[in-house]
Write a structure and sequence with these properties.
The protein is mainly beta and 352 residues long. It is built from five helices and 19 strands.
């Protein structure tokens, strides 16, 4: 869906489970001790060399079914979830008719202790070792953020709004509020990472029309984005209960890029957040940190999706004596996921 001047994205499948199955494994992931279900745990089937054969996220009851395609049989099954310890089971003696049970212990998230070299073309930083450890510890969450269950039908109720803002950011007028139902795989979507890296997040389609694109987790964690951006831990962590990772373009020569913060939760009671600002604008605007926005991610029974977002873009410039004019006005575009509808929800207009 294209909204004038902005598009917000969400997640699509990255870890693709098999459709045709020679073998099916069923089971549940539970908290060790309480035996409460662990939802949205990443379950991986591994071969003898620890390569991933298939993967799946657990549902809200902690259950999973993985269908294995091909001749290679899995040797081990592993479950990962942020804030919990990794659990691995040997499958050599497993009876396919029996349900697996994986018990996950609570585990702290250290962010120190692994020495690695700094990323090429990015400035060396004494916190690079901590960053490498953070990436390693947050890998289960980062991978699950990019996963959407392709086999579960979904339908979303979402709300859009468009608000006029003054040059100081104060709300002037609510121009549009609309609630819609969508049957897409995800409630909000953005352009493909390769397209954004080629064309930019700010695209001047004509002298009077500009398209602004927001990132999502799939974009920030894509090989294309990582190859052209630097990541670092800030000197001061501003958000309590989060690990903040800053990102910025490796080169300042390009136009229409983004920079900002990826905030990853240290416990299961918080949600991942992406904040971003644009590094350049059309109409020769001065850089303004208010232009940009945020994306918040939330778990659903189909995977992690964008639950709400905001994108603030500038209005047409008021040309005066300044060769590079200040921002005279802004428009804030916002989206919010209201609910994920089930196939038999009586409140869905399509079911009436």
């Amino acid at each position: 869906m294209r909204i004038p001047r902005c598009v917000l994205g969400t997640l699509v499948a990255l870890l693709l489970p098999a459709n045709a199955a020679a073998q099916s494994l069923r089971g549940a992931v539970l908290h060790e001790g309480s035996l409460e279900p662990v939802s949205l745990a990443l379950v991986l089937l591994l071969d003898a060399d620890d390569r991933v054969i298939a993967s799946r996220l657990t549902n809200d009851q902690g259950r999973f079914t993985i269908r294995v395609q091909g001749e290679e049989a899995p040797v081990r099954i592993r479950a990962e979830r942020i804030g919990l310890g990794v659990v691995t089971l040997d499958l050599n003696d497993h009876d396919e008719s029996e349900r697996l049970q994986l018990l996950m212990p609570v585990a702290a998230i250290p962010i120190e202790g692994i020495a690695v070299e700094a990323v090429d073309q990015c400035p060396a930083d004494p916190r690079d070792e901590d960053l490498a450890q953070a990436w390693a510890r947050f890998r289960p969450l980062l991978e699950s953020l990019q996963y959407i269950d392709p086999d579960r039908p979904r339908r979303f109720e979402v709300e859009y709004s468009e608000t006029k803002l003054s040059s100081t950011g104060d709300e002037v007028a609510r121009m549009l509020t609309d609630t819609v139902f969508t049957s897409k795989a995800v409630p909000f979507e953005t352009a493909e990472p390769a397209v954004l890296m080629s064309d930019g997040f700010v695209v001047e389609e004509s002298e009077t029309r500009v398209m602004y694109y927001a990132p999502d987790a799939r974009v920030l964690l894509s090989p294309e984005f990582i190859a052209s951006h630097c990541y670092r831990l800030p000197e001061t962590q501003e958000r309590q209960g989060y690990l903040e990772i800053e990102y910025a373009p490796r080169s300042q020569e390009g136009e229409g890029d983004i920079q900002g913060v990826l905030a990853l939760p240290l416990d299961q009671g918080r949600l991942p957040v992406i904040e971003y600002t644009f590094t350049s604008h059309p109409w020769r605007y001065r850089p303004d940190p208010r232009l940009g926005g945020f994306v918040e991610l939330a778990p659903t029974d189909v995977g992690w999706v964008v639950s709400q977002w905001e994108l603030r873009v500038p209005g047409p410039p008021v040309v005066g004596r300044d060769r590079v004019p200040p921002v005279a006005s802004m428009t804030a575009y916002r989206g919010r996921l209201l609910r994920v509808l089930t196939s038999r929800d009586p409140s869905d207009p399509l079911r009436r």
